[in-house]
Amino acid sequence: MITHHPKFELIQLFVNGQLPASLSAAIAIHADMCPKCQQQIALLTEQMAEVSFEEDSLQADLEQSLTTDNDSTADYSTDLTDEETLESLSIDDMVDAITMSDELAQTTVAADKTIIYQNENYVLPKTLSSMTLGKKATIGKLSRTRIQLNENEVRTSLLQIAPGGGVPEHTHKGFELTLLLEGSFHDEKGEYVKGDFIMLDSSVQHHPISKDGCLCYTVANDALHFTQGINKLLNPIGGLIY
Amino acid sequence: MQTNLLSKVTSDKSRYMSDKINHPELCQWLDAVATQRNKQAFTNLFKFFAPKILRIAKTKFPNEAQANEVVQETMTNVWRKAHLFNSDKGAATTWVYTVMRNVTFDMLRKIQGNKEDNLSDDIWPMAESMSSEEESFNDHLENKQLLSVLEELPEAQQEVVKGFYFSEMSQEQLATHLNLPLGTIKSRLRLALAKLRAQLGENS
Q1: Taking the domain B2-123, which CATH number applies?
Q2: Would you say residue A105 lies in a domain?
Q3: B193, exposed or middle or buried, with CB in 10 Å at 0-12, 13-18, 19+?
Q4: How far off is chain B from A85, nearest CA to CA, in Å?
Q5: In which band, very low, low, confident or very high, does the pLDDT at A197 lie, cut at 50, 70 and 90?
Q6: Chain A stretch 159-218, residues whose beta carbon is closer than 8 A to a beta carbon of chain B
Q7: Kind and range of the H or E element at A84?
């Protein structure tokens, strides 16, 4: 059973569209496997929509109005009325231009993408279907494919651990998100299963091991830092793994 | 009858629904656009949503032209995707909000990351998946890629890397096995890793 979920603040940013694609995709994939979070997202979306499209509400006051009663936002006034804003939009032209084409949007969804690591075939979540994958790199029992999202220091990858493999004990200079897509692994804190959304910050030092192998979606904003003995030698390639 | 039914659905839907939005009316307009391609209903929706979308967009995009583009794109998608709206699943406001949020997300990504990959519909799908033609991504390079990079290393470095990673021997064991000083093993491994790192590339 899934026991690790994104924090409420993250879900809220997700609903508002304020998270980078890497983390948004992670929450979307988690929610596909987690009815509890899915429900929370649906509720928050409805709530955000309500506040956004209420008469005389402003985006800047959304957060405040979310935490207060609906009544207290009623007397909020804005500089421009809807009518005044409309005038700047040349409504007839826009409506004519839009309705000129009767074409309906195509709704075909991309086909399943699969990826093979060390003879294991994995079907990737639909959320990842338009993302560009880099080349694979395999070091011992770890295989990694970078997902090319162009988010500067934030790096997103698929990480596969073959049965019996693990990531040497390490800390992070920034944050590290691990979302389990298939299989399971454990570290000092316990066992993690498919769907678990594990967000760690730089204070955590851990040593994940996968007995039966697993595939993870990972997002990190800095290289791993290996902390133990011989594995310190891996530090120059820490950035290659996550 | 229709109106009563809809208002019941929406009023039962959530405690967040306020009286300030006429949900049944918005819902009927959107249904009219979906089923009859009704231009008057679309004009009504436009008058209700466009100014609000513009004000929200202005808080996210400093550039007026970009804020206008959000309105244009969002309302175009409302027209073209109305058939995907299902009033049983939620309010019209929620649906238009997701359309607007998706347009904004893709535009911000385009501006900030210079990426035109339009990921929003994968992250927040508007429709359930329909087709599913099998198309697999098989990278035959997998281990071959690493092996070919390895083979370009000098023999002495290869030996150490293969011993360390493939046979999973410790550096001390390797030193004994190859009858070399530990320092030599360490420096060969370090050199080899630096080369591998350069070859595989931080951004590969």
Answers
A1: 1.10.1740.10
A2: no
A3: buried
A4: 5
A5: very high
A6: none
A7: helix A82-87
Range B12-27 average pLDDT: 70
Q: Is A28 within 8 Å of chain B by CB?
A: yes
Residue of A nearest to B171 (CA): A230
Look over chain A and give the mean of its residue pLDDT values, rounded to a whole number: 81
Q: Which residues of A touch B202 (CB under 8 A)?
A: 239-240
A106 in contact with B at a CB cutoff of 8 Å?
A: no
Q: Is B88 on the interface with A (CB under 8 A)?
A: no
Q: In chain A, what residues touch B186 (CB-CB under 8 Å)?
A: 233
Residue whose tokens read 């494919």: A145
Q: What length does chain B have?
A: 204
Are A172 and A220 part of one and the same domain? yes
Question: How far apart are the CA of A154 and the nearest CA of chain B, in angstroms?
Answer: 12
CATH architecture of the domain covering B142-198: Orthogonal Bundle (1.10)
Structure tokens at B1: 């009858």
Q: What is the mean pLDDT of residues B3-24?
A: 54
List the one residue out of B46, B58, B118 whose CA is nearest residue A97.
B46
Record the tokens describing residue A144, joined without a space: 């990694």
Report the C-alpha gap between B93 and B97 in whole angstroms.
6
Contact A206, A170 (CB under 8 A): yes
Give the Cα separation of A127 and A78 in Å (integer): 38
Chain B contact for A48, CB < 8 A?
yes
A57: tokens are 């509400």
For the question of an ipTM over 0.85, the answer is: no
Structure confidence at residue B134 as a pLDDT band (50, 70, 90):
very low
Spatial distance between the Cα atoms of A145 and A163, rounded to a whole number of angstroms: 18
Strands (DSSP E) found in chain A: 114-117, 120-123, 132-139, 142-151, 154-161, 165-166, 170-172, 176-183, 185-187, 190-192, 197-200, 209-210, 214-220, 224-226
| Burial class of residue B2, CB neighbours in 10 A (0-12, 13-18, 19+) | exposed
Delimiting residues of CATH 1.10.10.10 domain(s) in chain B? 142-198
Cα B45 to Cα B63: distance, rounded to the nearest angstrom? 25
